[in-house]
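CATEGORY: protein folding

GOAL: derive structure tokens
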Amino acid sequence: MTEGARSSRLRTLQPSDHAAVVALNDAEVPRVGRLGPTGLDDLLPHCDLALVLEQDGELAGFVLAIAPGAAYGSPNYRFFEDRGTDHLYVDRLLTAPGHRRTGVASVLSDAVEARARATGRAEVTCEVNVRPANPASLAFHTARGFVEVGRQDTGGGAVTVALLARTLPPGDPNVGS
């Protein structure tokens, strides 16, 4: 295989992925909230989309997204629910350190947008930490057309997030289905 060429596979998150997903997630705290030993099991029933991307047989990244109407207590999800817009909320999107800048986040984001379109959602929503700052994530989402629609403190005031939304342009309803 030539340098830079990687074999990639996007697939549904499986129980065998749990330990690796939790380890990746928890290594990225405070950029994301901690999952801990039971957090993923608690979160998955709320997810409309739970995908992993493998590159060369390794976990390169994952995404968890939640549709409207879920009984999910996250204050960030609740913010978007209270807005009343039909959205697909990205709770987590992470790329493993050794796979950054290889297109992992774009592949995962494209899959979220395809799912949002396939289910008739008007927008994709997420939050990005601004305190402590996560400038790489904010730049990524801004480049994809997300705009800030609010801010709020979470984690007992230890974290401030920018609440972002991207209105999906009308497209082919068969894309992503």
Notes: The chain is about 30% helix and 30% strand. The chain has a mean pLDDT of 92. The CA atoms of residues 61 and 159 lie 23 Å apart.
